[in-house]
Specification:
The complex is a heterodimer of chains A (210) and B (755). Chain A is α+β, with helices and mostly antiparallel strands and 210 residues long. Chain A has helices spanning 2-8, 11-24, 36-45, 78-85, 141-148, 158-171, 177-183, 194-209, and strands spanning 56-63, 66-73, 104-107, 110-113, 126-128. Helix content of chain A is 40%, strand content 13%. In chain A, strands 2-1-5-3-4 form a five-stranded mixed sheet, sandwiched between helices. Classes of the chains: A alpha+beta (210), B alpha+beta (755). At the A-B interface, helix 3, helix 5, helix 6, helix 7 and helix 8 of A face helix 1, helix 3 and helix 16 of B.
Chain lengths: 210, 755
């Protein structure tokens, strides 16, 4: 069964992963940060991932300004690495197929869907998640605006909405309502809080002008 | 009192819950706070108060069950039937059990499965991938059986049987008056058929649970709308004392009615965890979420109605078939039964069984379906009578339930919703002759009415504490499913105590806290808030007993405001709230007040009217909602900001129902085709029109100590019907089947051309 899965991976990714793994030295590197849960399982189980046909290696991730060396599987998505291994659970997964934007994080300032991004592909890159948006204990103006205008209901898509709004306002600090709608159209909200999300983004833009 | 205890008063209250009348028997307080007078100036209630937990929600700190990571935690998966109907001859789990990394496998011992996705077994492994591999290693021998997934086909004679006693349930009848007499009196009689689709809840956070054992006690983090309900059901299923089971749900990514009961995977996770001796987490995939845990049933509704020339409705006959899957299809009839004055009414509703997962309550179960038929029908009737549709509704206005034949409503502000809504949308601008607009792109305006329960009821209990630093702690086993429960609790307590919301610490979503009911039926706010006010008033009295001597005044003469305690007739004589709290010598003041009963002799309902303006492209069939006005009367509104959000969100979901969403089943395989977010369409930001909430300023005079009703479901009820009526006004063609997709619009236009 695992063999079958491996075949699905396209050539381009396979190549980049291979070279990456070679560079890391076939998993012999000791990870600086391995959460206790994973370490515990590994120690207890002594499962060899190679035996089950899964490649692994250690990546270097710069997340919210802090460097992490994490052991990941070649097939691992960034959202899982963030959520399961680093306990950065602010990033959510809703659709798992790049349709809804809940898992949006910034990679070198560019928004990406972390549920369809392989962690090995962001090796050595700068990643910003919702947890890294506030600085020195002060909320980002977009976060403030989402609270003030109630740009959320259940809150589960909110991290992704905010990451998209931050990018939108960086590219267009004075958006018109229609531009806000277009800029936010990659993020679904099942509660339908869109009108309040628009108000929040416009209010954040207003804060930026002040 | 000589026997050392007292017997409290208990009252049985009848509640309209999700369209059904249920009885709640509960202990009621000896004394309730006086209702807040209508002219009292309030500082926090009825204002736009941002969520008190907003910072947690925008920084990613809010912990949902989906976010729980525990040391040594295993991941579980459910083995589900790939067949829509089969006998299970054998389940061999031996290979799965031996698979490296697998820690526990459970056979649910099913003999038969009746829909694709029905649970057969469960596994737990060190990661999700290995758990999935283990599912592939479980060998199940099936004997495939004939099946039917399409509702119309299931109703045909000779269709494969989903239940041994047939695919159509015995009709649930309700009637009053005599419809034959009613139709004789009528000058106009119409009969129309309306159809609605299966809608899937698809909350952002899929269903899931995490279980962790500590000896004989288990803690479960669950995505649930019923923290206490799940605790009770789970304890029963595990044969454990209730005190050994704790259910936690601090945050949840939406439920919409699909997360009210104990789920199979939740029980499985508890059993797997016990077996493996480690915490286990199961979260469904989006696919599983789409076809394994409920939906809003599809309907076929036949409505026949008669009216006199002046618009007086004389009779309704309503027959409906609801696709319940392997469960009940519920009821849609209440809007027909209650909304408009009608002395003669006969209802027959049947569930149709198909080989699909059982339907579950979904935001205002039945009401969006029933409202689509009755409010579309009223517009057709108005047309035949040559009347303005809004005038026809006003003509048949009633202040009693059961179409004017029943109990008087405690309050009904629908007339105000009509007046202000019509004004805001510019009702006079609508086409006098439907479809009269020039050119291929035509505009129209339509409206529809809303009725729903939402009274709230007794039973909510509290642990209310005031500490010596002036901070209030409130523990209550209710939950916030995204509506803002945390915040309205803080608002009510802060208003009553005259302090700031930031000094109120709200702890909910935990079965270790005192009991409160499930969050369904728009019941949470009006069940919890009056209890909070009672608790705060009790604490206030206790603090006055301390502050009175400090001020040298009779405690009865004290009042609160602006974080101070003062003498009612001499405001300058005062002490700060915090200062007074320093004099609490026993560590804290506590209260365990409860929610009072609803008074007898009234019907309690919420009301609203939606007005929609649409643009129809007659060349492409595409409909665009330009503007939507949503007026609601729900008694006193606690938080205007979250209420507006609720109204707008309900409208967006109804717009989705009107134009986008529908579950599509493959009749050959019995599988759902569009079980993902790409193919199961919901609106994006680009589809969202301007939605203008109108909040009717009103206070229910008798219902509870805050004069409030619920709001969660009402905005979801009439919007799509208003949009459908607006489409008729734009193009002069009726579309009686949801969703209104471009192909249906074009076909209807074509049919008229040919006709």
């Amino acid at each position: 069964m695992p063999k079958k899965r491996e075949k699905k991976i396209d050539k381009k990714h396979q190549l980049s992963r291979r070279s990456f793994l070679k560079g890391m030295g076939s998993g012999a590197v000791t990870a600086a940060v391995i959460p206790s849960s994973i370490a515990a399982i590994k120690a207890k189980e002594s499962i060899s991932f190679q035996e089950t046909g899964v490649e692994k290696g250690v990546v270097n991730l710069i997340i919210n300004g802090r460097t992490y060396n994490v052991e990941v599987e070649a097939r691992e998505i960034l959202a899982d690495t963030l959520r399961k291994k680093l306990n950065l659970t602010g990033t959510k997964i809703i659709c798992g197929q790049g349709a809804c934007g809940a898992c949006t994080v910034l990679v070198d300032g560019v928004p990406i869907y972390s549920c369809i991004t392989l962690t090995v592909d962001v090796n050595n890159k700068n990643i910003t998640t919702i947890e890294g948006l506030a600085s020195d204990g002060k909320l980002h103006p977009v976060q403030e605006a989402f609270i003030e205008k109630d740009g959320m209901q259940c809150g589960f898509c909110t991290s992704g909405q905010i990451m998209s709004a931050v990018t939108l306002l960086k590219n267009n600090p004075n958006p018109a309502l229609e531009e806000v709608k277009l800029g936010m159209s990659g993020n679904l909200c099942r509660c339908g809080a869109y009108p309040k999300i628009f108000e929040s983004v416009l209010a954040a833009a207003e804060k930026g002008r002040r | 009192m000589t026997r050392g205890f007292k017997i409290p008063k208990r009252i049985t209250t009848e509640i309209n819950f999700e369209g059904e009348v249920i009885k709640i028997d509960a202990e009621v307080p000896e004394q309730e706070p006086e209702p807040i007078s209508e002219d009292k100036k309030l500082n926090i209630i009825g204002k736009k108060v941002p969520r008190i937990n907003g910072e947690e929600m925008v920084t990613g700190k809010a912990k949902y069950a989906f976010d729980i990571n525990l040391p040594g935690m295993l991941y579980g998966k459910m083995l589900r039937s790939p067949h829509p109907h089969a006998n299970i001859l054998n389940v061999d789990m031996s290979k799965a059990e031996k698979h490296p990394g697998v820690k526990a496998v459970i056979n649910l011992n099913k003999n038969n499965v009746r829909y694709v996705g029905e649970e057969i077994a469960a596994v737990a492994a060190v990661n999700e991938e290995i758990a999935e591999e283990a599912l592939d290693l479980i060998e199940v021998e099936y004997e495939k059986l004939p099946f039917v997934v399409n509702m119309s086909r299931a109703m045909e004679p000779g269709a494969p049987r989903v239940r041994p006693d047939g695919n159509i349930s015995k009709p649930r009848p309700r009637d009053r008056g005599n419809i034959e007499d009613g139709f004789k009196e009528a000058d106009v009689v119409l009969e129309r058929t309306y159809k609605t689709q299966v809608e899937v809840h698809n909350p952002a956070e899929v269903h899931g649970s995490v279980a962790k054992w500590d000896g004989e006690k288990v803690t479960v983090w669950d995505t649930t709308q019923a923290t206490h309900g799940v605790r009770r059901s789970l304890a029963k299923a595990l044969q454990l004392p209730e005190s050994n089971v704790r259910v936690i749900n601090h945050y949840m990514g939406g439920g919409f009615g699909g997360k009210l009961g104990l789920n199979v995977h939740t029980l499985a996770v508890a059993n797997l965890s016990k077996m493996a001796g480690a915490p286990v987490k199961i979260f469904l995939t989006r696919k599983e979420e789409s076809y394994c845990v409920g939906n809003r049933p599809a309907t076929i509704q036949i409505l026949k109605g008669g009216a006199k020339k002046d618009g007086t409705i004389t009779a309704f006959y309503y027959k409906s078939f609801n696709n319940g899957g392997v469960g009940s299809g519920g009821s849609n009839a209440s809007p027909i039964w209650d909304m408009y004055q009608c002395p003669n009414c006969q209802i027959e509703e049947s569930s149709v069984y198909t080989n699909t997962d059982a339907s579950r309550p979904m935001r205002a179960p039945g009401y969006p379906q029933g409202t689509f038929s009755v409010d579309s029908f009223l517009d057709e009737l108005a047309e035949k009578l040559g009347m303005d549709p809004l005038e026809l509704r006003k003509k048949n206005y009633t202040t009693k339930n059961r179409g004017g034949t029943g109990t008087p409503y405690s309050s009904k502000g629908l007339d105000k919703c009509y007046e202000l809504g019509a004004q805001r949308i510019g009702w006079h601008r609508r086409n006098k002759k439907p479809g009269e607009g020039k050119g291929p792109i035509k505009r129209g305006i339509g409206m529809a009415s809303e009725i729903w329960g939402g009274s709230g009821g007794p039973g909510t209990q509290l642990d209310f504490r005031l500490l010596t630093d002036g901070v209030v702690e409130i523990r209550c086993g209710t939950q916030d499913i995204g509506t803002g429960t945390y915040t309205i609790i803080a608002q009510v307590a802060a208003e009553e105590l005259g302090i700031d919301v930031k000094d109120i610490k709200v702890m909910i979503g935990d079965s270790d806290y005192p009991y409160s009911g499930s969050s369904g039926g728009s019941m949470t706010a009006a069940s919890v808030c009056p209890a909070i006010r009672a608790g705060a008033a009790d604490i206030k009295g206790k603090l006055f007993a301390i502050a009175g001597p400090l001020l040298g005044e009779n405690p009865e003469e004290l009042d609160v405001g602006e974080s101070r305690i003062f003498v009612r007739n001499n405001k300058s004589k005062s002490i700060s709230f915090k200062e007074a709290c320093k004099h609490i010598t026993e560590g804290m003041l506590t209260s365990n007040e409860t929610r009072g009963p609803n008074p007898k002799g009234y019907a309690f309902s919420t009301f609203g009217a939606h007005f929609s303006e649409v643009e129809v492209n007659t060349l492409t069939g595409k409909v665009k909602v330009i503007r939507h006005v949503a007026a609601h009367e729900s008694g006193r509104f606690i938080n205007i900001l979250t209420s507006e959000n609720q109204i707008q969100g309900g409208t967006v979901q109804a717009l989705s129902y009107a134009f986008f969403e529908q579950r599509i089943m493959d009749e050959q395989t019995g599988k759902m085709i569009n079980s993902n977010y790409y193919d199961y369409k919901t609106p994006t930001a680009m589809d969202t029109p301007q939605i203008e909430p109108i909040i009717i300023d009103s206070v229910d005079p008798v219902l509870n100590n805050l004069g409030m009703k619920g709001l969660g479901e009402p905005p979801r009820i009439p919007s799509h019907a208003a949009m459908a009526n607006a489409i008729y006004n734009a193009i002069g063609v009726w579309i009686r089947e949801l969703p209104i997709t471009p192909d249906k619009v074009l076909a209807a236009l074509e049919e008229r051309k040919e006709g």
